[in-house]
Give the backbone structure.
Amino acid sequence: MSIHACTARRLPFLEAVLTPARVAHSIRVMRVMGRFAEVYGLDREAACLAGLLHDVAKDLDPGLQRSLVEKADFPLEHACEEHPVYLHAAAGAVVAGSELGVVDGAVIGAIATHSYAGDRETREALLARCLRVADLLAPIDEWEGLAKLSRVAEEGRIDEASLLHSAWVIEYFGERGVPVHPNLLATFEELSTKLEVDESFYAR
C-alpha cells in the first residue's frame, strides 16, 4: 500500500524530527494499520494517519515532551505517565493536533494511549486497540512471539491480540524497570477474565 496523500504531506515533518529508523518504523505501522482497516472495518484514512504519526514525538528530548504536554494542558492521569515510554505518546498527540492539523479525536486518542491504554472507553476504542497491536507488529528489532501476534490479529481476533499485547508489554516493561501503567494491568485483567485462557495461550 502506498502512502496516501493525507499522510504523505506529513512525511517531511516526521523526517525532520525522527531518526531514519523511527520514520521507517512509523511507515510500517501505517501499513499494518491499512491492513487492519480492512480486517476490522476501520476508516482507512484515520487508521493510516494514526499509524504514521503515533511516534511523532518519540525522538524529542523528554524535557521538550513534558513542555509540550504542559503548555497544551494535556491531561496526564497517572504519575507513571511522566516516564518517557509513556510521555512521548501524550506529546505526540499534542504535536499531531497543533503542528500537523489532525482534528479527528479518535486518531488523537489512539496516539495518546498507544504506549499503554487509556481509560475504559479508550481501551475499548477499536482504532486505539489496533494501533497498540500494530506498533508491536512493525518492530525495529524482531522479537519472539511476533509471528503469533501477527496471525491472531490478522485473523480478526482483536481481544486475543490485545491480551497478548498487554501480557507481553507488561513482561517487557517489568524486565527493564519501566513502571507498568495501571491501565495496562486493567486491560490484562479484563481480557484474561473475559477469555478464560490458560497459560499455554501466552506461549510464543
Q: What stands out?
A: The chain has a mean pLDDT of 92. The CA atoms of residues 12 and 18 lie 10 Å apart. The first helix runs from residue 5 to 8.
